[in-house]
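step=encode ok
step=design start
structure_in=
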């Protein structure tokens, strides 16, 4: 049952990727100097995600719409999955890592991540 649900979610994710590709959001336009400032700020942000997760696709669309350069990290397996579990506290995506001077904060929940990005960069 768990496997069927996982396969359904994967399939739905692929379909959403196709729809996302067809109806890709247009990017917010900023003056060059403002965009350069934004790009500098987003260096400290990392999005832990799965490629075909619907909540991650929703978050990536918001990132594109807001014209943000945010590194995405595949948390499906390997070092980033391990880091997410250890440092973030749980394996759930999307999760936005916000790197501070001494420590990082980890924001879970797609709506909370999008809210944070909109408040900071819209
Ligand atoms: N309410 C959450 C839902 C996130 C969610 O369910 N993510 C799934 C992937 S689509 C997940 O991380 N599952 C854990 C796993 O597959 O290991 C959000 O909006 O971010």
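sequence_out=
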């Amino acid at each position: 049952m768990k496997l069927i649900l996982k396969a359904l979610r994967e399939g739905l994710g692929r379909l959403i990727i196709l729809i996302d590709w067809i109806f890709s959001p247009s990017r917010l336009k900023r003056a060059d100097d403002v965009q350069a400032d934004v790009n500098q700020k987003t260096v400290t942000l990392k999005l832990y995600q799965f490629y075909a997760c619907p909540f991650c696709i929703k978050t990536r669309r918001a990132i594109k719409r807001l014209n943000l350069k945010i590194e995405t990290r595949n948390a499906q397996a390997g070092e980033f999955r391990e880091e997410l579990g250890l440092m973030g506290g749980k394996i759930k995506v999307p999760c936005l890592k916000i790197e501070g001077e001494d420590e990082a904060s980890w924001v879970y929940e797609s709506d909370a991540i999008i809210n944070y990005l909109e408040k900071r960069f819209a």
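step=design ok
step=annotate ok -> DSSP finds five helices and four strands in the chain.
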